[in-house]
Amino acid sequence: MKKIVVTFLSIAAISLVGCKNETKKTEETEEIVEKTTEVEEVVKEITFALESKSGSTATGKVEIIEKDGMVTLNASFFGLTPGKHAIHIHEKADCSAADATSSGGHWNPTMQPHGEWGAETGYHKGDIGNFEANENGEGTITITTNEWCIGCGDESKDIIGKAIIVHEGVDDFTTQPTGNAGGRVSCGGIIQ
């Protein structure tokens, strides 16, 4: 009888050790899973000034932030004539010409017709839209989209190397290819 009891206790002791090892392995596995699922949030940000062009007094400040696959453009403008003005992204971050024509045409990597942002009939990736300048010549605009990126290398989305242009007039969203928005009164390059 003693031999059976001793054998039974030995089996029970081995089982307990095995359970402890399984618990330890499970805890280690859970810890590893927790560590691999932690993702560092990447936020990209560019801030730059807009300079006066075409003999205007229009200036501004632009902040572009990319977070979680979405890009938000926040812009503030000063020294404009009161009323509505168009804002676009143009092809080149070159504001060297007095009238900002060195920035090229609207950024249109998908070769769509000019139009209002989000229109079913098409629009340029640079067709941001219009904003209102108050009686002091100040205005703001904010747009958030997943159709742009900052430095991702995708030619149909990457806004690095482009320019923000503020126009003298209103974008009518129909005249091709510019929206008949008038002269370029302010310019700033999107450069990292």
How would you explain this protein's 3D organization?
Helix content is 19%, strand content 32%. The chain is α+β, with helices and mostly antiparallel strands. The protein has an eight-stranded antiparallel β-sheet, with no helix packed on it. It has two domains: 1-38; 43-189, Sandwich (Immunoglobulin-like). It is globular and about 45 Å long. The protein has one helix spanning 2-37, and strands at 43-52, 59-67, 70-78, 83-90, 127-133, 139-145, 163-167, 184-189. Mean pLDDT is 86; it is low at 1-17. It is built from one helix and eight strands.
List keywords for this structure.
alpha+beta; eight-stranded antiparallel beta sheet; 19% helix; 2 domains; 32% strand; Immunoglobulin-like; 192 residues
